[in-house]
Design goal:
The protein has helices at 10-23, 36-46, 62-68, 84-93, 104-114, 120-134, 187-193, 239-247, and strands at 2-6, 28-33, 50-54, 75-80, 96-99, 143-147, 152-156, 160-166, 169-174, 181-183, 199-203, 206-209, 213-217, 223-226, 231-233. By secondary structure, the chain is of the alpha/beta class. The strands form four sheets. Strands 2-1-3-4-5 form a five-stranded parallel β-sheet, with helices on both faces. Strands 10-9-8-12-11 form a five-stranded antiparallel β-sheet, covered by helices on one side. Helix 2 runs parallel beside helix 3 (62-68).
Length: 249
């Protein structure tokens, strides 16, 4: 797999190149760039399969570089020293990232993910999700990209009825589907991806879309009857907050 490294800090470039040379024999570094404009030209000219892209650069940041190459199908691994908003965006779109200083084990895991084959359509949709998260214009049409055993699946947020934990996996029940879908991601991470919307953690193992609630059924904690006629339990400590949220919809 061919790759290009982009970072405005020369020492970061050198360290990353060294780590790749030493621990990642399946990668071939075909260019290192510390200026984003040169990097954009190189991506168009050399068409790498993978780009390591720094988030924080002067003049044009990492997202600007990616936007300038939006029509080219390549995998992206972002590098960042902080910027929690960006980290959340990467998770939201299933784009991988590395925190600086780069750890060799994290690097290896990120490269293994990047080597999983994805179609040009998947890469384009994944990138669109990233841009929509960073610059939301139509939040009702947002999607999240989630890994399954077969590859990435792009889930419209508005179609999610509820999510149910299954160990380190999560079952998601979607509007119009009779059977749930199993995703290779724990419920806690999916909750983070959906944070700030209409989703509520009713129970340790359940995350419900409050816009899909048909009925609240009284009980010690109670239950929610969802739009697909399934019942979602409500933990007693969550009951009061839930009723307040339901009253504000």
């Amino acid at each position: 797999m061919t790759c290009i490294l982009i970072d405005d800090e020369a020492d970061c470039l050198e360290l990353l190149a060294l780590l790749i040379q030493k621990y990642c024999p399946g990668l071939s570094v075909i260019g290192q760039y510390d200026h984003p404009r040169q990097a954009i030209d190189a991506i168009w000219e050399h068409r790498p399969e993978l780009v390591f892209l720094d988030v924080d650069m002067p003049e044009i940041n990492g997202f600007g570089v990616l936007d300038a190459c939006r029509d080219l199908p390549f995998q992206v691994i972002f590098t960042t020293a902080y910027q929690e908003y960006a980290v959340k965006a990467f998770r939201y779109s299933a784009t991988d990232y590395l925190l600086k200083p780069v750890d060799r084990n994290d690097l290896w895991e990120a490269i293994q993910k990047a080597m999983q084959e994805r179609s040009a359509q998947q890469l384009a949709e994944q990138r669109e999700i990233l841009f929509n998260y960073l610059h939301p214009t139509q939040p009702g049409k947002e999607k999240i990209a989630l890994p399954t055993a077969e590859g990435l699946f792009f889930v419209p947020v508005a179609d999610i009825v509820y999510c149910q934990a299954d160990g380190n996996y999560t079952n998601i029940f979607l509007e119009g589907r009779q059977k749930e879908m199993l995703f290779v991601k724990p419920l806690k991470e999916i909750e983070e991806m959906l944070h700030g919307g209409d989703f509520f953690r009713t129970h340790n193992s359940y995350l419900a879309n409050l816009k899909k609630v048909r009925q609240y059924i009284k009980g010690e904690g109670g239950e929610l009857k969802m739009s697909n006629d399934r019942l979602v339990p409500v933990a007693r400590p969550k009951k009061q907050e839930l009723l307040q949220r339901l009253g504000n919809i």
